[in-house]
Write a structure and sequence with these properties.
The complex is a heterodimer of chains A (338) and B (525). Chain A has 338 residues and is of the alpha/beta class. Chain A is 33% helix and 24% strand. In chain A, the strands form 2 sheets. In chain A, strands 1, 2, 3, 4, 5, 6, 7, 8 and 9 form a 9-stranded mixed beta sheet that branches. In chain A, strands 11-10-12-13-14-15 form a 6-stranded mixed beta sheet. In chain A, helix 2 runs parallel beside helix 11. By secondary structure, chain B is α/β, with parallel strands linked by helices. In chain B, helix 7 links the parallel strand 4 and strand 5. In chain B, helix 3 crosses helix 14, helix 7 runs parallel beside helix 8 and helix 8 packs antiparallel against helix 15.
Chain lengths: 338, 525
Amino acid sequence: MASTVVDRIWRDTEPGEIEPTLAAVWRDVGRRSTVARAVMSNLVVVRASQAGEPVDAYAATHIDTIDEVVGRHPSRLIVIVHEYGCPLTRAPIATRVAVATYGPPHARYAVEEVLVRSSCDEVSLPSIVRRLTRGDVPTTVWYLDDLSERLPVRGILAEARQLIFDSQRWSDMATGVRVLVDATRDLRIDIADLNWRRLAPVRDALRRMGEALPIDALRQAQVRIRCAPQERAAAWLLAGWLAARLSLPHDVARAIVLEEPAMTARLAIATNASETPLVELGGNDISVAPPHARAYVHAIPRETQSDAIVNELGNLAGDAALLDTLRALAELTSAGSS
Amino acid sequence: MPDAVVNAELPSIAEQLAEADASHVAAEPVSIVIFGGAGDLAHRKLLPALYNLSLDGLLPPRTAIVGIGRKEMSDDDYRAFAKDGITQFSRRPIDEAAWKTFAGALFFVNQTFGDEGSLGTLGSKLDIVEHERGLSGNRLYYLAVPPALFAPTVRQLQRSRFVPPLESVTPAQRPFARVIVEKPIGRDLDSARAINDALAEAFNEHQIYRIDHYLGKETVQNILVLRFANSIFEPLFNQKHVDHVQITVAEAEGVGTRAGYYEQAGALRDMVQNHLLQLLSLVAMEPPRSLDADVIRDDKLEVLLSLRPLTGDEIDRRVVRGQYTAGFDLGRPVPGYRQEEGVDPQSRTETFVALQVCIDNWRWAGVPFFLRTGKRMPKRASEISVFLKDVPPILFNSDPNGRLDPNVLSIRIQPDEGFALGISSKIPGPRARVYPVKMDFHYGSTFGGTTPEAYERLLLDVMIGDATLFMRRDQVEVAWRWVMPILDHWRDDSGSPLATYAAGDWGPEAAETLIHRTGRRWRAL
């Protein structure tokens, strides 16, 4: 598989010596085999360090996913493991560079990786990102953390063309949305929410329902979006989308999300008048029962996290529907925490 | 036909041997006299460059390098000084065998210069060294000294009969005497003229080599090759196809130990008047009719003469000056300019300049050139980016939320020398998704080894007598003439804005506004 790392040479270095060390590692790679240097973008992965995590533990979590993503969308990878809350302004406390080789023997290609452990005031983080990113390719920032708990650094987002995150990780939807809208205001940045991608089959089913969608019931809050606890954020995204697209009153949009701890399906949309959901999203398929029409079951796309991220990395066009949804959600959740 | 006449028409044996040998470099044995030979420039740049030329077999045999300065130093002390500089700053490490040969060519003369005294001690030393090494008297005088010492030193050379009378000098004459001067050539048009006048009293223009070390960088030399040795690019270099051009010279360092000089200079004098305008003229010049030094310099001069003058309010609209405040460098806090050692706490010296420049000629009419340079920017990076015009907003460029990136030809001057062409390509898969990709050329990985330092090429050129990469008097003065209204405006109107930017940023907000007003953005580096 193209995404499997066949070789990785890494070296610890000093913050001021990152580029010369990388150049030396490239020379070592070149001595071992013939590889093409590949870079389509900068991929800046940011995550908070865990309590007690050793200084030299960098991208321990998600490393397989990151490797696969970078193998399929060759990027200059910059992983920042950051200790939040540190009042000091200082250089990274540890840095490591690597060159990872991918591909079959007849078509080897390699990408460069910079792994940074920072423990400093967030105000000094952008200068690290600016120094490490290449300007001649697009920059994507992938936040692994819960944005409702760890505020994204606006100065980092200002350097990026795309922000990737997963709202499924958010513990507080209202805070997450507010933080996101504030952090990206007036920036030219594309926003990509992996959770939004998971909702695509539901949005598609509702779009296909067209005029059959019970719009009056929806406007009168006679429709409910029921969800399993882990799909709470997805349910709110759906409510925000409906609010934005159908101009639902805020109180109606707020009222329609209903969390059901015992629910087996991931998410369902149903009118109060019927036992059968209009749409029910399961693990592998989606069941759709339009009023006055034949019900059907449709397989949902099998998309791993790395599939989703690679697809987003390759799509630099802004998602206007997601932006409208987030703005609508920011308004309808501003009255209180969801 | 008499034999004597036949002999006169025959080339010399050396010329016959050199004929048709493309690798032949016609540098003749020479004495290189470095005024300020124990200074920082000699230590960091000149001696390492000469050592590398020696390693490559490009330093002519028997060449002598004579440093002159006020420091008490023996020849052996000077060799130790040189070895230290080479160890620290040479692109290649010391090779003991090669060093031994090189060290034997190094000498030092302790003598004050730039005053009314004679250069007798230097003369005696040169007589001995040249006699012992069998040198014919070719001399290269490198003025690695502050500009204030240019004129007195040249007068001293003339008074001490180190240079032949002007009227007797021709380009072909041997032994030759040449002089190298470093920028800054003056701090305004008048002082530049004064320096040039002083040089002209002792040297003809063909003997004077004004160094702008940027012109010695491989990628800068490659601009002409890129444009005129490839059929793909030159047809695009005009107002029909180019949307705009950006030239950025960014430094990550602050003012460091140069506060004394920099306070009097600022970014416009230090970088724009020379480096950036030279780069601009190389990118924008017409195809020269030959590679002759003066032909190329004539065509570069034409560009400078075509620059639209900036005057009055236009200066505030098209020029942004800025000064860095405290900020961060790779996470580390760094002081603002006014807190730097040796800087006036109220200083209004600009550490950043951004300009929108127009070239009023047929080729570039309507194409804006955006120049910017600054200290304490996020990284050290110099690049020329030629932005081609967008494709029409149809087909693959029809999505208003996802306009295609323009094609950009970027010439990376430092670091990672090379160039890249940004193009759009379909991402493999069932959908027609277009992504910006690059055709990228890196000097390092393509040609291998390490790229010669600019000073190596430039010093070799002076020895050969090739002035192509050096600034001619008229170029220097025309560049000053274009810059002067800006300097005058800033001096006369102390209320004109001096924007600030945090160290580690790409410049002040006003620089963003300057380019945003035209619907464009600075390219990230």
